[in-house]
Every structure is written in C-alpha cells, then in structure tokens.
Amino acid sequence: MRIGYARVSSNNQDLELQKDALYKAKCEKIYSESISGKDNNRTQLKAMIDSLRAGDVVVVYKIDRIARSLKGLIEIIEILNTKHVDLISLDSGDKVDTTSPMGKAFFQIAGVFAELERGMINARTQAGITKARAYGVKFGRMLGSKNKTTQAKIEKIKIFLQAGKTYSWITKELSVSRQTISEVKGYINKG
Predict the structure, then answer these.
(1) Could you confirm whether 69 is annotated as catalytic?
(2) Among residues 97, 40, 119, 122, which one has the least CA distance to residue 74?
(3) Quick one: what percent of the chain has pLDDT higher than 70?
(4) Residues 6+ away with beta carbon under 8 Å from 74
(5) β-strand 96-97 against 86-89: which pairing, if any?
(6) Is the full-model pTM beyond 0.85?
(7) Burial of 50 by CB count in 10 Å (0-12 exposed, 13-18 middle, 19+ buried)?
C-alpha cells in the first residue's frame, strides 16, 4: 500500500499542492498536518507510522516534509526499516527511493542537505535579528503592554489549577508558559 504524508509548518500554508501530488502518485491514504517539523513528535506522523505494515511504501512530496533534521530523518528511516517499509520522495531535487540501493545511498545524502538547509535558514534568521537590533529594532511585546487574551487565560488557569490540572496539561491547553501558570498560582496562594 502507498501511504502519503504531507506537512506544512503553519496553518497559513496550504497542504493542497502536496496532497494533489501524493494522490497522483497513487497514495491510497494520506496523513497530513500543519506543524513544525523540528522533531518527530507529531500526531499524524505517529498515526501514519503506527498504521504501516511490511511492504508498504511511504510517499512524501519532499524529504524535508517528513523530517527537518538528519537525526529525525534517521530515526524515521530506522523505524521504516524495522517495519520493512520503503520511502519515496517525489521532489526532483531530493529524489529518494529506498526501494533501490542507489536510492538508499542518495537518501542519506539528501538528509545531510536537508539539515544543512535548516542550519542556513537559522543562521540567516539570526543574522537578520542581530542586524535589526543593531539598528534599534525591538523584538517582543512593548514594555507595559498586555496580551488581549491575558485576563481570560488567567481566569481559566485559576479554574484549571483549582481542578488539579498539571502545569504540562495547562500549558498545552492554553498555550501559556509554565512561568505564567506559576505566577497565577502565586496570586491564588496570596489571595
């Protein structure tokens, strides 16, 4: 069975280009998600891997859609190897097809370049931030300003803390930092 995996880094990006290519590549099932590829802890990636059976072929639009680092890519390929599953990338720039020995070798080289590209993006971003700071650009929220959703989140944090929810659970549920939760807990204990 050919199984597709599509990923974009944010909800602002469109998955349709990848999905169309995967359907044209005769994928019978496609798992897709909008999430950073910085690690392999992704819901749809895990679901896809869990569904795989020996002889299946995972198809991706581009190799960096399944993993952004060489380490992550190696982890995934090791899992696929233990399940006797192959990987194919449709992109002509990183054409990977682990169904052949040459494809396996090229796959390893492509992984190195995917990691190099990510490193270069990070370096350019950091250089841009450094330059902007040198010109006086400030990053983050203005001193004294408040997030418009802060008060509503504080109320929810109070309720969740009183209900005995963990910091980890609240962090995921409300997209707040552990520090914010700790500060709210401090207010509750004082009051």
Answers:
(1) no
(2) 40
(3) 88
(4) 111
(5) antiparallel
(6) no
(7) exposed
Between 28 and 81, whose confidence is greater? 28
Catalytic residue among 9, 51, 168, 177: 9
CA 180 to chain centre: 24
Q: Which residues contact 45 (CB under 8 A, 6 or more apart)?
A: 5, 7, 31, 33, 66, 76
Backbone dihedral angles phi then psi of residue 139, each to the nearest 5 degrees: -110, 150
The strand pairing partners of 59, in sequence order, are 4, 88
pLDDT for res 69 = 78
Q: What is the largest CA-CA distance in the chain?
A: 67
Please name the fold of domain 2-118: Rossmann fold (3.40.50)
d(CA 29, CA 22): 9
pLDDT of 11 reads 75
What are the φ and ψ backbone dihedral angles of 176, each rounded to 5 degrees? -120, 160
| Helices (runs of H) and strands (runs of E) counted in the chain | 8, 5
Segment 49-58 shows an average pLDDT of 95
CA dist 72 and 77 (Å) reads 9
Least confident of 19-28, 45-54, 107-116, 134-143: 107-116
